[in-house]
Hints:
Elements lengths: L14 E2 L3 E5 L3 E9 L3 E8 L5 E8 H5 L2 H14 L10 E6 L3 E7 L6 H8 L4 H20 L2 E2 L8 E3 L5 E3 L6 E2 L21 H4 L6 H18 L9 H10 L10 H10 L10 H4 L3 H4 L27 H7 L15 E6 L3 H14 L3 E5 L3 E6 L4 E9 L5 E10 L1 H16 L12
Protein name: non-specific serine/threonine protein kinase
Organism: Eruca vesicaria subsp. sativa (Garden rocket)
Catalytic activity: L-threonyl-[protein] + ATP = O-phospho-L-threonyl-[protein] + ADP + H(+); L-seryl-[protein] + ATP = O-phospho-L-seryl-[protein] + ADP + H(+)
Amino acid sequence: MPEIEIVSDNGDNSTNNNSNNNVLFGKYELGKLLGCGAFAKVFHARDRRTNQSVAIKILNKKKLLANPSLANNIKREISIMRRLSHPNIVKLHEVMATKTKIFFAMEFVKGGELFNKISKHGRLSEDLSRKYFQQLISAVGYCHARGVYHRDLKPENLLIDENGNLKVTDFGLSALTDQIRPDGLLHTLCGTPAYVAPEILSKKGYEGAKVDVWSCGIVLFVLAAGYLPFNDPNMMNMYKKIYKGEYRCPKWMSQDLKRFISRLLDINPDTRITIDEIVKDSWFVKGGFKQIKFHDEIDLKGGEVEVVKGLNAFDLISFSSGLDLSGLFAGCSEWERFLSEKSPEKLAEEVEEFAEEEKLRVTKKKEYGFEMEGQNGKFMIGIYISRLNDLLVVVEARRRGGDADCYKEMWNNKLRFKLISVWDETPSAII
């Protein structure tokens, strides 16, 4: 992973003015615009440390905050991609933030969208369709094993790299196992109409793994046929076709492929083919298929074992309890975490000095924890200090009661500035 970088946020100037206005945080040299939308722009960039190409996605915080649903999607995408490391999934290198923008530094996939390849060349050969589908299933199976369900698989979210390999991207609509309701199902209506599974249309709940398999079936059909299996200018007519499973395979498809697609596009989720069955199917394994194993990431109890070789801003954001990413979107008033290069001993000494100066009652908690109260009960705060690695310490402040204005005055204007160092003196240091 790249070295740790906490973004400087002086006036939200995220470029290095000393040398090149196109250098982002002194690390990424921005190139041409690759694409843009209502909330984000994506640029090609060069990592000056490695000379490798990366894609920089720049999001506008103000616009995100005006759209809570989209903001939640971004938070979810960050927390999910934190878990994933697979050769057929676009890698997120790090996340950086200033007062007004969020920056994703991602793997640059040179070949563009699979959708464009189909649009330009029409249907693909059965062998090439199989290759891409094998790589798609490898990535999707990996996600499912880690409790991640994509829920928006389509050619526009599948990229092709310079070596002709498929990469899954865009996890903004993904779900995690902790979103499953007591009935064992997901209930959020999402996805792209032509790729949505019939059980989603029924609005009775669905299994994330099974709707992903359905979408994979649509993708395979499009690859081999060059068009969608369920399509109609009238949306309701299209949904009726999906719900009934009404589609026709073109005459050039092999019988084995037709049979295989019928198992993927089974309208009954209970009998639809599973990932484990897919990787054993005769059409799927033709020409060879080797499932990618990641034994080093799974411990004997089935949990994930994370080996951190270096920490970047993205890792530090994810370090927050419960993967709370609110620091990316707004300042924290009730609680805050930030990083410090000071030692835990030095920080503890500064907390005690502050308590003495302000005549606060102090209760020590564990090793470097303090709970303080004063100002006639108007100010109540907890300060918890813990070492993150050999170089960095995490400081967490939590309002524990009292008057909000008093807390703001005492914490924001006094104690915070006593503890914080020059290195992390801007809001962008908040994790």
